[in-house]
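Report of the visiting student (M.T.), summer placement. My assignment was to run the structure pipeline on a short list of targets and document each run. The first record concerns NADH-quinone oxidoreductase subunit N.
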Amino acid sequence: MTLGSASLVQGIDWAAIAPPLAVAAAALAVLLADLFLSGPSKVWLAWLSLGGLVAALALLLPLRGEHRATFCAPGPEPGGCSYVVGDFTLVLQLVLLGSAAVVVLLSMPMTAPRPWADEHDAEAGVPGGEYHFLLLASVAGAVTLAAARDLVTLVVALETLSLPAFALIGLRRSVLGGEAALKYFLMSVASTAVLLFGASLLYGATGTMYLDRMAAALSAVDPQLKTVAATGAALTLAGFAFKVAAVPFHFWVPDTYRGAPVPVAAYLSVVSKTAGFAGLLLVAGIGLRPYAHVWGPAMAVLAALTMTVGNVVAVRVATGSGDVVRLLAWSSIAQSGYVLVPFGTAAGHGADLADRLPASVAYLAVYAVMNLGAFAVVTAVLRDRPTGVLADYRGLLRARPPLALAMGFFLLCLAGLPPGLMGLFAKVTVFQSVVAGGTGWLAVVMAVNVAIGLYYYLVWTAQLFAPPVPSAPAVEGTLGASGALRVPTPFAVAIGLAFGLGVVLSVAPQIVLRVLTVPGLLG
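After the run finished, the structure tokens were exported:
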């Protein structure tokens, strides 16, 4: 069937959509395999899940250096494609799939069938079939979101990411798990409602859902519709601000991370947040580019609030309860503020966005490595010290030197101190975008917040190297007994991968920074 000279039958670029398809196929395979496997054979579900993610990573290789677009609207107008693969998409899909693979490794002891589950794992017994199916379904949405180029696909991918996460959080059979799942559900529903309302206003003002066509329409929008378009832009960006835990839309984060299984908290902190930032980058950097002079100052204020609130409350947690998961939750909020900083430097009509926003992508790539590494060590330590407070890490260097050295490295990376140079270079890249954008006050706020963040990261690091408390006798199976802390092989592999990649990026940061700071990354 044709309409004029344009065919309504679209060709599909199967190579372009192969990575999310591989993840979705792996999710279905896990669901079916769970019906036929029983007893100790269910441990293969985790390996099947990991295999699907590795296959999706391999399918990224043929797409290197190419620009592909599929699901394009017919007609003579330029652009109008729903799924686009370029450098931006490949970088974020690599980060998302690699991070999800590490989460699967961290989840293996937790999802091992009882009574084969490790007795030291306080969260063991989570149903493996349901867990890995939900995890892969959520990852499929995240990977699709990085390639989406219209608002409908963005919203559908975002919900495909979020809906399985509700159940993942609630799989921890406790009061905390149910409360965390409910809070995440309510906040996500609210943010989706705001996002959909904003998208509907943008569609009404521009007549299109495609981001590239929307940018062209906003540049020449009817003066009577400018208020509608501006309101739609504000609501759409606010919807994504919920997803990335920007202040004041961050209230769900600490309780949700604390109530969820720790591997799920790591997933929310890295994979879910990275996908949320991918959507924000696409909407702001492509669709709403003509309104950069409006949302740029607002994003600068959001960035300043987010990093300040995150760091100040993290200091309070470190000096108060010392809950390590809550501390990482507030730390991740502060890190979101740093990612938002390049958004706040946008000015004019978005002509400089190509020079600014890639700094956010570079920071996200480095953040994924250092934050996943920190969560991996916390997951290992919680097996023997389920209280999950900073005091549990006192004397870790004597009990388990590799764990202590790895945790110290990840904390110094988050702080931006040597030898964690990858964190330092990522912060410098973001800082350069602020200076180049001429937003002096934001540069000052960022510098002050980096100094505040040093306190709680160094307090935690000091615990690792402090001598054990003499009044607390060593008990077999705890950190006090030298060498008693046993780390399962999947945990060791996850920590080793994060540590190795962190060392490589600290020695050769240009691997990430030189590629990701090339103007035109967003197309």
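The radius of gyration is 23 Å. The beta strands are 2-3, 6-7, 68-72, 81-85. I thank the supervising group for their guidance throughout the placement.
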